[in-house]
Amino acid sequence: METLLAEGVVAIDTTGAMLSKATPSIDWLIVGPILIPLFAAAVLIILRRAVAWHPFIAIAAVGGTIATSFLLLLRVSEFGPQAMTMGNWFPPFGITFVADLLGVILTLTSGIAVFCVVLYAMGEITGRERRFGFYALLMTLLVGVNGAFLTGDIFNLYVWFEVFLISSFGLIVMGGGAKQLDGAVKYCFLNLIATTLFLIATGYLYGVYGTLNMADLSKIVGAKPFEGALVIISMLYLVAFSMKAAAFPLYFWLPASYHTPKIVVSALFAGLLTKVGIYALIRTFTIILPPAGDSWLMLLMLYAGIATMVCGGLGAVVQTDLRRLFSYILVSSIGFMLIGLSLGTEQSLTATMFYMVHSILVMTALFLLSGLVYNYRGTLDLRTLSGVNKDFPFLSLMFLVLVFMASGFPPFSGFWPKLVLISESLDKQAYAGTCAVIFSSFLSMIALGRAYAFGFWRPLLKTSEDEVRQTQFSGMKSLQYIPVLVLITLAIVVGVMPSYLFDLSASGAKNLLNSTAYIEAVLGGAL
Amino acid sequence: MNTLILRTIAPTLTSLMVIYSIIVLLSGHNQPGGGFIGGLIAASAFALYGIACGVGPVRRALYFHPIAISGFGMLLAGLSGVVSFYKDVPYLTGLWWFPKFSGGIEVPLSTPLFFDIGVWLVVVGSLVSIALALEEKD
C-alpha cells in the first residue's frame, strides 16, 4: 500500500473500511446482466447513424445477458445467494449487488422476453426510429430492470427504477402522435408520483434506521415490532410499489396507456415493468421489512389483490380493443401475485414466483401476437376485427393456446401456480382469495374467449373487407412469428414440466422467508 | 443575440471556460470539483458560443455529434470499472498508477479519473445537445 501513495498523502488505514478478500472472477457474473446491456447501449448511442447494425448489436448484447443470467442461475441454485460490493467497500457503505433465486430467475426470464422483442422489432422499427434511439433505449431499459432485480441496496433500487422509467418515457412517446402523447402523459405522471413516494419512503427509512443496505436493514428491522415509523414507511412503500405494479385502486393508468405506443413497446412494458413493481413489493415485505410481513398490512394487500383480480377480470370482459383487453388481463394477473405475497407462506410465494415467470412469457407473447394481427388486419377493434382464423389458421391457433395459458388451463403454465395458491389460500382460510382467483380466471376465460370468437373465429365481416385490402402488408412478416412461437414454446415447456421451475421457486421462497443466507452472502465477508 | 461585443469575446470566453472546466475536472478527486461540475461549466461554454455565433459553428467545433460524445462518456465510465477484473477486486474499485517520466515528474493516474472523464463527457454531450436543440428553434 505504501508504495502506491504519493508524497505528502497521509496513509489511511483502510482495513476496517475495505474488503481484503480477493474477488473470484466468477463473481463478475453478478454484474454481467447489467454491464453487457449498458455497454451495448453506449455503443448504440455512439453508432447512432449506423442503423443497419443496431439490431445485431442489440441481439448480441441480449444474448450475452441471457447467457450470463443462466450461468448465474446455475451458480446461485447450487451455492445460494451471491454478492459483490462495488468499489470493494465494506458492505453497508458500498453498494452491494446480490443475486438470489428470485432476482436471477426474473433476470433470465426478462432477458428472454427482451430477446423476443428485439427479434420482433427487426421487422417493425424504421430507420428513423432507430436513429431516434429505439435500441439504445431498449438496452437501457434492460439495464434498469436487471439492475432492479439484482441490487442489494434500496436507494440503488430507486436509481434503477429511474433508469428504466426514463428509458420507458423515451420509448412510449416514439411515434409522436396525439394518441401516444395522451397515453405517455398518463403513464409519466402516475409513475413520477410513485417514484417520488418511493424516494420519500427511502429517505424516511434512512433517517430512522441509518442504513439502506437490504441485508443490513433485514438484520436491524427484523427484530423490531411493527409500529410507529415502520408502519408509515411500510405504507409508503406499499402505495409506491402498488402504483408501479398497477394494483387496485391505482391501476387505471395501465389500460389507459398500454394500448397507445408501438406494439413492441407495449409488449415490452406488459412483460417487464409491472413485474418490477411486484418484485420490489416481494423484496420489501420479505427481506427488507420482515415485521410488516406479519401484520394487518398484509391483510390490506390481500384485499387490494382480490379487488385487482376482480376489477381486472371485469374490465377485460367489457373491452373492445384487443390491447386494452390484454392490459386488463395483465392487471388481473398482478392481483394474483399480490394475493400470493400477502399470504406470505412458502407455498404461496413459490406460486407467486412461478406465476411471474409465466406472466412475463405469456403477456409479452399476447401483445406481440396482437401486433401480428394488426399487421394483417389493420385494426385491433373487436367490433370490426374478424376472419383471422380462416385466413391465418396458425396465428389463430397460437392465440388459442395463449388464451388457454392466460386463463390457466392445465397442462399450461398458468394452471400450476393457480392450483398451489388456491390450495394454500384454503389452508390459510383466506376464502375470499380463493374465490377471487377462481372467479377472475373464469372472467379472463370469458374475455379472451370472446376475443377469440369475435376477432378470430367469426367469418370476415363485409364492412371490413375494404379496410383489409388497404392494409395488406406486402413485406415479409412471417419471420415475426418466430419470437411469439419461442415464447409460447417456453411457456408450454414450463407448463408440461413444471417441477424444475417449481423447485427453483420453492428454494427461492425459502430464502425470502429466512433471510439468513441472504444476510450471510452480503455481510458474511465483512463480519 | 447578435452583438459585436459578444461575438468578439465569445470564442475567447468559451476556450477559457473549457480550460477551467478541465481544471475543475482534474482537481475533483481531492478537492471540490469533478466530472459533473466540470461538465456543466464546459456545456455552458458551448451554449454561450452557440448563443453568440450560432449553432452551426458549435457543431463544427465539436466535430462529433453531442449525443455520440455522451455515449462515449458512458462507455468510458463503465469500462473504467472493468479494469478491476484483472486485479481480482470488485467492479468499480479505485486503482492507481504512478508512472514516472524523465525529470522526476510523477503523474498519478487512476480509474476514478477515467470514470470522472466519462461523467464529464456524458454531461457535456447531453447538455450541449439539449442547449443546441433549444437554440436552433429561434
Rg of chain A, Cα atoms, Å = 23 Å
Mean pLDDT of chain B: 90
H and E order of chain B: HHHHEEEEH
Estimated share of beta-strand residues of chain A: under 5%
Tally of strands of chain A:
2
Mind describing the biggest β-sheet of chain B? 2 strands, antiparallel
Structural class of chain B: mainly alpha
Helical fraction of chain A equals: over 70%
Average of pLDDT of chain A: 87
Largest sheet of chain A: 2 strands, antiparallel
Total tally of structural domains of chain B: 1
Strand order of the largest sheet of chain B: 1-4
Unreliable residue runs of chain B: none
Low-confidence parts of chain A, pLDDT < 50 over ≥5 residues? 1-6
> Which chain pair has the greatest contact?
A-B, 26 and 24 residues
Spatial strand sequence of the major β-sheet of chain A: 1-2
**Tell me, what's the shape of chain B?**
elongated
If you had to describe this structure to a student in words, what would you say it looks like?
Chain A is mainly α. Chain A has helices at 32-46, 54-79, 101-121, 127-132, 134-150, 154-172, 178-209, 214-221, 229-245, 253-257, 263-288, 296-318, 322-343, 346-377, 388-391, 393-407, 415-427, 431-457, 465-470, 481-496, 498-513, 516-523, and strands at 82-85, 96-99. Chain A has a domain at 321-496. Helices cover 71% and strands 2% of the residues of chain A. In chain A, α13 (322-343) packs across α17. In chain B, β2 (100-101) and β3 (105-106) form a beta hairpin. In chain B, α1 packs antiparallel against α2 and α4 (66-82) packs antiparallel against α5. The termini of chain B are close together. The mean pLDDT of chain B is 90.
